């Protein structure tokens, strides 16, 4: 244990909504007020006559980014905070994630103090800030392995209804946090476009397959979890310690080609139907920032068995859930051409998770599989029970058979070239600040070779 | 294209069985004569009063290993050969793999000359050799992503017969090179033990699951393929160019817990039943060394459709197959205690592959998924049609119901603690040298916590 449990971490001054920042755009910022302070990797602007700057770690505040390496060199940090900022100074946050909560929280606490209104060192810190309009964001880590869970029970139910009306939820669902290994190489940061994949699938059900651009390109709304300190191969992380292995959270769009997936997935699961792209938001929202928005573990359905002991922890039951609101927005090329604002396709929540993050980590490592700093976990698609809370077009359009109207005259069964999908997420609670994740954004470009 | 196609590469002096080496243990070595020259990463012995040496790239010859970094510094290399040896001098071969065939073959050709009987520089080169008994081997690369195919058609048929007697081979099998994403973090080099995983599975069919050490621990005999130059996300590697993306081959044991796998795998495929360990052999056998042992692409069953155009290439049909003999040996703790030699469980071959390596790579990248240098592909279990050629205990023992006799009085349905599995492979042809892969060896140790 490297600190309080994720599920019962106390609140402190960094969560106080009445403490203001001297950074002008911070207070009231919809995503990044002083109470958030997420980490990320950015590239500063190139200055004339200078070399291209290297990617480096930063902390977001309002519309500014604080350079952590420069902060470490400034003399304003000591001890764990300095060690943490130094570990975050390079082109990936893997080494910083490996340090765990101690260093992360030390940086958070110190940066909170330095950015608080009236802080004495403001002139020094101000010189270490960049305007977000001048920088570019990169993937925050070198992703080791990417695992995608299936913990959105309403998604599992809805997909099951579409393909197995007789038994929508398989017997193992209430017992096993179902997951599969995803593709790490194709994880990309928000803003990079997604090329429509070609693949093999039958033109008509039961027909012979051919190789063609997917006709069923879809998004999936997920929460991503970045792994911090992991475990050695052969060891496991007990559920009570699992929170210590979380470095932070992001938004995750698990792009899917439903026709390719349906044809290939028996008997070994999704492969090329998923591995052509996964988009994550750039900012790593910390467990500390999300501490005020914990909830009890999701309630199970009346007939469901209790989780097995290795997935059961009293603190996790009390505070292992998360209350984060997530939305999906679509902007088509035609909408942009006619200046129609992006339209919301879905409004969902992490409250619809069937398993907690600690349960996912305890399960993942239960057989000794090792997690490493910078590994990525996806929750699975976060659909809610309502028709307005579905996390994929597969669910919304009943596998393309009932296209949804985006704006008058424009419908979508699945995504078309030029469509832009934006995921957003916010956490708020009466009497506390609202914090957000920024955007997870990508535009679909046509298949290779037209 | 960075050289001749894998499927039609010409033979040269490095394949000549009549050229001898001055390294005493090389000629007639069952795995590593002068005609092989595989690459790997090793740690030299620590000398008293010196620091622990760092891992580094080497080439195996007989019972010796040539230090490639030291060779690059020796003045004996120039051009591509020097650049290649320098890229292979560090603790992983990823950078060397990225250089592709040109640098790899330049190193191979030059080292062959330097090690040939009568070479003038023998005294200089001799000082760069280590005795394999003094070194330890490491994983040759930092594995980016690990993909496991299902291209052993007799394995797929036999497993299908066990679990779906009515339709042993699914309709997509003759069309799609089926694969799933595996776990990269738990890939380990030959010699490291494998801890029996715990996991969730029902004690009896249809019963409630509990969490316990697997009772169905199994091996899988596979060929591994190391990826060299890869592709950018969104691009693809046409089948005609796919051979250029292969850096080399290894043996691969895809350890499996059949009870965990059976309970968890619907609907998203294997997860914890596979991800607790994957063992690979230490030496990277190059496409150049294997050039003499190419065969026509595997013949398809009479009723099977021809592959789709993106999986079809005339050269690949002519020479894209491989003729490598593979065997599985078992040594139980009791056998070792009573000095009984390891017993052969299986003798199989890469001729039983349904898809060629080029077809696997063309398919993997067909939707734009990017491969990176150091990625690992497994072929899937290489069973043959005969009962003596089955690549897993699942098949041999009919899922544990008919234990096989290993030696008199000792049977195995699945693996027990203390069992050691050794995979070996050889390629030979009349009039040519026989080359091998060395061993892929690991011993099962008891589950964590006893």
Multimerization state: homodimer
How far apart the termini of chain A lie comes to: 53 Å
Mean pLDDT of chain A: 96
Please compute the radius of gyration of chain A using only Cα atoms. Answer: 22 Å
Can you tell me the overall shape of chain A? Answer: globular
Structural class of chain A: alpha+beta
Uncertain regions spanning at least 5 consecutive residues of chain A: none
Helix content of chain A: 10-25%
> Biggest interface and which pair forms it?
A-B, 62 and 62 residues
| DSSP helical segment count of chain A | 12
Number of strands of chain A: 26
Largest sheet, spatial ordering of strands of chain A: 7-6-21-13-14-16-8
Largest sheet of chain A: 7 strands, mixed
Proportion of strand residues of chain A: 15-25%
Could you list some keywords that capture this structure?
12 helices; homodimer; 24% strand; alpha+beta; seven-stranded mixed beta sheet; 450 residues
Quick structural summary:
With 450 residues, chain A is an alpha+beta fold. The first copy, chain A, is built from twelve helices and 26 strands.
Kindly describe this structure.
The structure is a homodimer of 450-residue chains. By secondary structure, chain A is α+β, with helices and mostly antiparallel strands. Helix content of chain A is 19%, strand content 24%. Chain A contains 12 helices and 26 strands. Chain A has a 7-stranded mixed beta sheet, with no helix packed on it. In chain A, strands 9, 19, 20, 24, 25 and 26 form a 6-stranded mixed beta sheet that branches. A 5-stranded antiparallel beta sheet of chain A has the order 4-3-2-1-5. In chain A, helix 2 (79-87) packs across helix 4. The longest helix of chain A has 15 residues, at 101-115. The model of chain A has no long low-confidence stretch (mean pLDDT 96). Chains A and B meet through strand 7, strand 10, strand 11 and helix 7 of A and strand 7, strand 10, strand 11 and helix 7 of B.
């Amino acid at each position: 244990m490297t600190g309080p449990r994720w599920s019962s971490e106390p609140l402190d001054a960094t969560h106080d909504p009445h403490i203001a920042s001297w950074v002008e755009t911070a207070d009231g910022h919809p995503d990044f007020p002083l109470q958030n302070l997420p980490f990320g990797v950015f590239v500063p602007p190139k200055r004339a006559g200078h070399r291209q700057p290297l990617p480096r770690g930063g902390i977001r505040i309002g519309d500014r980014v604080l350079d952590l390496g420069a902060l470490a060199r400034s003399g304003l940090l000591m001890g764990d905070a300095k060690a943490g900022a130094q570990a975050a100074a390079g082109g990936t946050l893997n080494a910083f994630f490996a340090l765990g909560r101690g260093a992360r929280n030390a940086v958070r606490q110190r940066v909170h103090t330095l950015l608080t209104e009236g802080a004495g060192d403001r002139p020094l810190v101000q010189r270490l800030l960049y305007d977000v309009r001048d920088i570019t964001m990169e993937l925050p880590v070198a992703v080791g392995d990417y695992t995608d869970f299936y913990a959105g029970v309403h998604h599992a139910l809805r997909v099951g209804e579409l393909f197995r009306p007789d038994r929508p939820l398989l017997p193992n669902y209430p017992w096993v946090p179902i997951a599969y290994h995803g593709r790490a190489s194709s994880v990309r940061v928000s803003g990079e476009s997604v090329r429509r994949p070609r693949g093999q699938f039958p033109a008509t059900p039961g027909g012979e397959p051919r190789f063609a651009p997917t006709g069923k390109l879809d998004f999936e709304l997920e929460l991503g979890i970045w792994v911090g300190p992991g475990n050695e191969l052969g060891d496991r992380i007990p559920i009570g310690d699992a929170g210590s292995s979380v470095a932070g959270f992001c938004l995750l769009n698990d792009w899917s080609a439903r026709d390719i997936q349906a044809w290939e997935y028996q008997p070994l699961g999704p492969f090329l139907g998923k591995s052509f792209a996964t988009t994550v938001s750039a900012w790593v929202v910390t467990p500390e920032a999300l501490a005020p928005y914990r909830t009890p573990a999701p309630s199970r359905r009346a007939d469901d068995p209790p989780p097995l002991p290795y997935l059961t922890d009293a603190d996790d039951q009390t505070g292992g859930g998360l209350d984060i609101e997530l939305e999906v927005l679509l902007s088509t090329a035609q909408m942009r051409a006619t200046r129609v604002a992006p339209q919301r396709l879905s409004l969902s929540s992490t409250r619809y998770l069937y398993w907690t993050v600690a349960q996912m980590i305890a399960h993942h490592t239960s057989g000794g599989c090792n997690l490493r700093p910078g590994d990525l976990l996806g929750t699975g698609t976060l659909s809610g029970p309502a028709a307005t809370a579905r996390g994929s077009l597969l669910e919304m359009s009943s596998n393309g058979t009932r296209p949804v109207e985006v704006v008058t005259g424009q419908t979508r069964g699945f995504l078309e070239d030029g469509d832009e999908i934006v995921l957003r997420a916010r956490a708020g609670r009466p009497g506390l600040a609202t914090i957000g994740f920024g955007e997870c954004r990508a535009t679909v470009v046509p298949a290779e070779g037209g």
